[in-house]
């Protein structure tokens, strides 16, 4: 069968339909599935063909709304909600333990959730909110679910991990990861978009390093979904920042002066490509945009293997310190 070449206008539905056979029998976990978001759209189209779609969110009531909406449209869909707050390392460990208690292997892990682009905010672990939610929490979740992912591998199938990144990693002013502040946030040097750029660079670097360290047993990819008017850029605390960058206009609505906008179905398409397009088996660690491999467009600071290895090591050490601290507290 000749596979189509996807593009800016491709939709998640089109991609899922193309790879319906690949989706069949697969168990997928996708984070950040609130209504009016690309995670919700991805979960909706996957539910039509996948064996199991695990949806996550930190708010149980909103999670139930997502589940109900998907089941209303796809009555046959097997949806399982999971409460997961990626900004809390303890919450990540709790959620991972729940997933690991389930009998099914995990074929695809999609890191779609993201923190709001807003004022400086510390998490319960004294980490900056965006880097914690977009990188450190997902990094820990992947490590904790690695055995479940590996269990899904066969002689003909390699499990996948997908990281939502952005072309913003390469915007003017983006300098890549500030390794000094990953685990030691500084409110005086903090910038909302600088932190966002770093978080999106982290996704690209982690996909590169995970693919390398997995030695063919897990394939990871990073994704630029495009510019989409979703629930996250409608948050009150982020509107002013979005306006300052020209993403939203004075009325708080999308501005087309500097950006070409995608619909939510179009915005979820490249995630579906990264999760199921069989052609990508040949390019583990690739960065995708508009449904195709766009690795050559990645900024040097976001593709340097040395940076990828350094970020991985720093994050592992940070998590080791965090766990040590937690254990000390519990023993007191």
Automatic annotation (TrEMBL):
It comes from the Eukaryota. SUPFAM superfamilies: NAD(P)-binding Rossmann-fold domains. Keywords: Oxidoreductase. Pfam families: adh_short. GO terms for molecular function: oxidoreductase activity. InterPro entries: NAD(P)-bd_dom_sf (IPR036291), SDR_fam (IPR002347). Belongs to the short-chain dehydrogenases/reductases (SDR) family. PANTHER family: RETINOL DEHYDROGENASE, RETINOL DEHYDROGENASE 11. This is Short-chain dehydrogenase/reductase. It comes from Mycena alexandri.
């Amino acid at each position: 069968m000749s596979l189509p070449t996807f593009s800016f206008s491709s939709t998640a539905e089109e991609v899922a339909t193309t790879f319906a056979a690949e989706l069949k029998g697969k168990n997928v976990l996708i984070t950040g599935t609130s209504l009016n978001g690309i995670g919700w759209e991805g979960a909706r189209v996957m539910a039509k063909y996948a064996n199991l779609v695990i949806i996550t969110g930190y708010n149980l009531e909103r999670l139930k709304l997502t589940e109900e909406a998907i089941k209303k449209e796809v009555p046959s869909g097997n949806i399982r909600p999971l409460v997961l707050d990626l900004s809390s390392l303890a919450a990540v460990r709790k959620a991972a333990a729940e997933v690991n208690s389930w009998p099914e292997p995990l074929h695809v892990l999609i890191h779609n959730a993201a923190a709001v682009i807003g004022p400086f905010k510390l998490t319960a672990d004294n980490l900056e909110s965006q880097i914690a939610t977009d990188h450190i929490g997902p990094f820990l979740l992947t490590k904790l679910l690695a055995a479940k992912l590996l269990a899904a591998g066969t002689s003909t199938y390699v499990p996948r991990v997908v990281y939502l990144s952005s072309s913003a990693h390469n915007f003017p002013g983006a300098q890549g990861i500030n390794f000094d502040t990953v685990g030691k946030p500084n409110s005086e040097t903090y910038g909302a978009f600088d932190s966002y750029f770093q978080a999106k660079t982290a996704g690209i670097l982690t996909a590169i390093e995970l693919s390398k360290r997995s030695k063919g047993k897990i394939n990871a990819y990073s994704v630029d979904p495009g510019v989409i008017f979703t629930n996250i850029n409608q948050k009150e605390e982020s509107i002013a920042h979005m306006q300052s960058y020209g993403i939203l206009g004075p009325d708080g609505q999308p501005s087309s002066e500097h950006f070409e906008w995608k619909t939510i179905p179009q915005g979820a398409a490249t995630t579906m490509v990264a999760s199921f397009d069989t052609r990508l088996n040949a390019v583990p660690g690739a960065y995708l945009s508009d449904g195709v491999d766009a690795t050559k467009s990645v900024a040097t600071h976001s593709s340097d293997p040395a940076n990828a290895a350094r970020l991985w090591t720093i994050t592992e050490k940070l998590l080791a310190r965090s766990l040590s601290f937690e254990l000390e507290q519990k023993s007191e």
